[in-house]
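Provenance and format

Records in this collection were gathered into a single text stream. Each protein contributes a sequence line and a token line. The two records reproduced below are adjacent in the stream.
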Amino acid sequence: MKNMVELEMVNDYCKGMGLSASHPLVTVVDLSKADWKPRKGTRSVRYHFYGIFLKQGQQCIMRYGRQNYDFQDGTLVFVGPGQIVNIEHIETDYQPTGFALLFHPDLLLGTQLGKVIDSHSFFSYELHEALHISERERQIVLDCFSKIEFELQQGMDRHSRKLVTSNIELFLNYCHRFYDRQFFTREHKNQGVVGKFEKLLNGYFNSDKPREIGLPTVAYFAGELHLSPNYFGDLIKKETGKSAKDLIQDKLIETAKARTFDTDKSVSEIAFDLGFKYPQHFSRLFKKNVGYTPNEYRMLN
């Protein structure tokens, strides 16, 4: 891709900012100490490591996915390996502020954090789904960053990796708590998303989309609502107590049960109408959830 900057290692980011990394695989940097010359125009950056940015100031606009996001005071932005961020509208006199925690996937190999890193779904959120934290929460973040930085400055020994990754995991667990608080404070807005999802789900099965597109997916509905799949899934789970995937399947089974009463259509035709490529897959799923095959259920009723 034209104008794509590949950040392979932690120090690639640091060099671009005129900083140095504390360790090849992990570092905490004070962005106010950056010495760099921003380029005009838009450029794309692809990260090959994890980055968490505690940003201050609003001079820089970043685009990820469909929307712009203006950095604000007390905002945490998460970037995961493989994500592309477009940076634009940087003034030539722009001086970044805030802090960044950067760590490479190789740091996590064989660690407890490595086993659970995929559960931290906010690394796949879009930038406009960033975490806005209170002053008290900000102090907790800075305290976690300080502990990680302190450990990195001690010189590496046989305990260092475990202590560093444990502190990163502690920080990420706090972020889950902060996001829960943010989901709660946006409850009214989130309920609107749930309502729109239910309307879209009903409309999907009342249209030709199952035959044209196939079985509905979480990613499809997230896209329709202009949300990342992970953020959408987490929001639905917190608001309804069930995963978006389970709600989709519940609606699928409910619709399938109703359509078995249409004796003018065979089970195979019903399967195709619902988006299944193979009728046997439909029959297997139906029996797993209902306890009977579609034909048996039809005969019982």
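Adjacent record:
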Amino acid sequence: MIFIIQTFATIFATPIKPVEVIMEYRRLGSSGLKLSALSLGSWVTFGKQVDLHDATILLQSAYDAGVNFFDNAEGYEAGESEKIMGEAIDSLGLPRDTFAVSSKVFFGGRKPTQMGLSAKHIRDACDAALVRLKVDYLDLFFCHRPDIDTPIVETVRAMHTLIQQGKILYWGTSEWSAQQITEAHAAAMAHNLTPPTMEQPQYNLFNRDRVEAEYRPLYENYGMGTTIWSPLASGLLTGKYNDGIPDDSRLALPGYEWLKDRWNSEEGRMKLEKVRALTQLAKDQGMSVTHLALAWCLKNPNVSTVILGASRLSQLEDNLKAMDVVEKITPETLAAIEAIVENKPAAPERYGQ
């Protein structure tokens, strides 16, 4: 489903002219919920690089461009990210039936009852997220990571209860293995509970195995949707690190040295060489490497929505324009990309054929 979105923000002294894009809407797996192909997340940005004023501008601009899904988590800046998003949505007065918002449960604090996926923490985290986000229900609620100390059936039952209470509409997982997701479905079936609808995995040109190979049976068997994060590999696929690390980039932020170390490794330097080649390929195709990387993600039919992260309005506006180049990612372009990255997961083996 595709709509042309062209509205104007009216809450600011100087109205923000929205990005004119043709936004596509995709079903969240086999559910009936339709999410914008591009969505807006708050990891690293809201509460870290983005204050309430700028967050409000980003949300308004995204919404005016057709974005209808905003992603968050209790662990993002210890809840501050959700507070900022909630205040921004509230100040904008967005009709609740025109957007979807999410939270994630796992990293709620340092005390034993503030971590993990126990029934208690799931309930407490949901209630806290509703307050911070200033909403009556969450559209999507994710288990932020698997919890090996909590029986999966306990987690499934806790999520089912929240759905029965009307506090959440859909629940899912993030960075769970295919085996763990399968166990969750088995527990739901055995106890007549609501199974997970979606998974939120990392997916980009350098992280493909889980989405394209490991999860392959889950799309057909369970109709699983995906809300993918880090489509630009923490900025690497924008090309801005081709000549070094800018002072204002994510890799230069305190507390994110692990990202910097990742790209300074031998493997990271090899990936940078590939980004330089992808940058030239994108240029030859008449687009930026950022748009090429985002559009490549959108070409995967099992991707329900691509979560964008932005610390500046100009950055968000540019990323949204990736919708305009999806049609340019032809089979020939895909083949040229594969020749550079050389990491396509193998197809299932058909023995004896």
